[in-house]
Amino acid sequence: MSCPDFPKAERLRRRPEFLQFNDGASKMHTPHFLLLWKIKDGCATRVGFTVSKKVGNAVVRNSIKRRLREFYRQNKSLFISADFNIVAKKGADLLDFHQISTELAAAFGRLRKKYVQ
Asked: 15: which residues sit within 8 A by CB, 6+ positions away?
């Protein structure tokens, strides 16, 4: 298990940090999530989470973000050195933590295999 914290240095927090994904970001779709990333050499991995109003009310959206943060905390070793934005699609609110973990671990496993030889 990885370090169980999520310090500010590992978070995307400001609008310009999220807007960087609009131009030239790589993307991968899973059934319930869209993964966007931009490779950053020599920088720490940073992660942001986006859940639009299409997915439930505020309570549901915050619940999804809490589960995504917990996935990141437990699986930091799967992430490559890049900036990531994990976007929840419609239907993500129906998943429990185990289903979210399984789906994202498979996606990040494929991503890691692609970039780390």
From this structure: none
CB 25 within 8 A of CB 38: yes
Residue 3 lies in a domain: no
- pTM, full prediction: 0.91
* Residue that the structure tokens 């310090």 belong to: 7
**How many CB atoms neighbour CB 1 within 10 A?**
8
Adjacency order of strands within the sheet including 26-29: 26-29, 33-39, 82-88, 46-51
Count of C-beta atoms within a 10 Å radius of residue 60: 15
Domain for residue 2, yes or no?
no
Split at pLDDT 50, 70, 90, the class of 3 is low
Question: What domain range includes position 61?
Answer: 8-115
CB count within 10 Å of CB 79 equals: 19
Contact 34, 27 (CB under 8 A): yes
Give 19-38 pLDDT, tens digit per residue. Answer: 999 988 999 999 999 999 99
